[in-house]
Amino acid sequence: MKIAKIDNPVTSIWLTQNGLRLDSSPYLSEAVQARATLEKFSDVTIPLKSITRGFNSGIYNGPQFVRNYVNDPKYGVPFLTSGTMLLSDLSRVGLLRKQDASSQKLSYLRISQGMTLITCSGTVGRMTYAGEYMEGVWSSQDILKVVPNPDEILPGYLYAYLSSKFGVPQVTAGTYGAIIQHIESQHIKDLPVPRLAEDIEKKAHQHIAEAAQLRTKYQTQIKDATALLFTSVGLQDITASQWHAEGPDLGFSQAISSPASLRALNFNPRLQKLLEILKQTNHMTLGEVCDGGQLRSGQRFKRIDCEPEFGVKLIGQRELFWMEPEGRWIAPQYAPQDIFVEDETILLAAQGTLGEHEVFCRVEFINGPWVEYVYSQHFIRIKLGNGPISGAFLFAFLRSEMVFRCLRSMSVGSKQQDLHRSMLAQLPVPFPDESTRKKIEELVRNAFKARHEASRLEKEAVHMVEEAIERETQ
Fold it and tell me: Distance between CA atoms of 379 and 370, rounded to whole angstroms?
């Protein structure tokens, strides 16, 4: 239940500004409080439209259009939607047909560094800063772009303000729609942007820009780790287009020696071909690697919601793959202990559907501050035993396209898929020499160190801006 804050009470001016409405919702909105605070900044506040530039004055999304997806990067460009904009690893996003992307109708939807991206359809108001790793990526009409004029304002400071507790409520204040919520460029073009001391704006910008560079480093290093692992054992990871080029698995025969599965998908020739390739290397099975550790799903439990100060943040399958998960706060005393995971545990999304870009069978590496979160039962916990392989090394292998296709072929179920546990345990894991394993581990650990540092810098920049506004308006 929301209640008004004693130190910021509803005034008669608020009643007038909201058409003398007597229901509570407009006055409990954080946007009203944010506007009231920023009115004290009126002499140094400027409208957003005066500090942007480019197409449609620098605040725009795009037209509705038919999305023609392709599998081969030669014929497509990475394409972000409101559902994939927050992903930490953009190497798995869909590919929009290059011919469409470069057309006059859609060419301006290409993302460039320094933009602030805002979800403007569905769940509106989520934001991210476009760094180098988003160069050459296109966005859908469900993402609103704010293109700052660097001669007027530093891009990093503008992003820090818009994503602060003063910016977000005002961005979402213009939301309209009954079932699916929307915002448009005209709803935020007059949004007030306070100008702070030069050193504060500069420092906030530097933090955001450095965070973007660290996220680029993260993406590069996890890809390098996977590539090094495969080349070290004489292999090369496959691509999605290579997998699909093999054609559908129709009309094959298979001698089955165990009644564990009668599903054709679990014996398809493409899977058997990949497994044979992996078995030709010096390898251990995933079950052997996890002997003495964990290779199982979490326990089911009832979620008991609570306030953040009394609970822990629960992460589900979709949020696990975001740069910063939202989650929900639950009371840990009413949940099993295995909602917590140890450092360098790998979580495998183990329930879902077989859509090409669904998270089912994707993996994430848990370390650093993410150990403080808790995780739902929908993940298989992969915790290494006492053997020579580390979680960092195994993550570099499990995130590969080859393993993803193997895991998808090991699924069971009707609509909602799960993973066949005995087949999963038999997955071959290549085993290069010790020096190579250490290089791979170092790449993965350094990548996640950069990712977590980027999150810290971004939070610090936003907090810095919020503190400066509050200090100036007291």
Answer: 15
Q: What is the pLDDT of residues 420-459, one digit of tens each?
A: 999 999 999 999 999 999 999 999 999 999 999 999 999 9
CA contacts within 13 A on the Cβ side of 155: 23
> Who's near 442: CB < 8 A, 6+ residues apart?
none
Asked whether the beta carbons of 144 and 80 are under 8 A apart, the reply is: no
Tokens 């910021």 belong to 8
pLDDT tens digits, residue range 182-230? 888 888 999 999 999 999 999 999 999 999 999 999 999 999 999 999 9
Instruction: Tokens 């559908």: give the residue.
Output: 248
Q: Tell me the pLDDT band of 279, cut-offs 50, 70 and 90.
A: very high
Task: State the CB neighbour count (10 A cutoff) for residue 422.
Answer: 11
d(C-alpha 450, C-alpha 456), whole Å:
10
First to last CA, the chain: 27
**CB of 78 within 8 A of CB of 137?**
yes
The DSSP code sequence of 125-179 is: T-EEE--GGGTT-EE-TTEEEE-B-TTTS-HHHHHHHHTSTTTHHHHHTT-B-SS
Mean of the per-residue pLDDT values of the chain:
90
Which pairing describes strands 294-297 and 138-139: parallel, antiparallel, or unpaired? unpaired
Which residue type is seen at 356?
E
> What is residue 177's predicted lDDT score, i.e. its pLDDT?
67
User: How large is the angle between the packed helices 198-232 and 391-398, nearest 10 degrees?
Assistant: 80
State residue 306 phi and psi, 5-degree precision: -155, 175
Number of H helices, E strands in the chain: 15, 21
Nearest to 374 by CA among 325, 415, 409: 325
Contact criterion met (CB below 8 Å) for 195 and 204: no
Q: State the CB neighbour count (10 A cutoff) for residue 254.
A: 11
Question: By the 8 A CB rule, do 243 and 405 touch?
Answer: yes
Q: Could you give the CA distance from residue 319 to residue 316 in angstroms, rounded to a whole number?
A: 6
User: Rounded to two decimals, what is the model's pTM?
Assistant: 0.91
Cβ 88 vs Cβ 323: under 8 Å: yes
Identify the H or E element spanning 454. Answer: helix 434-473
Whether residue 298 contacts residue 336, with contact meaning beta carbons closer than 8 Å, is answered with: yes
Q: Which DSSP string corresponds to 382-429?
A: EE--SSS--HHHHHHHHTSHHHHHHHHHTEEESSSEEE-HHHHHT-EE
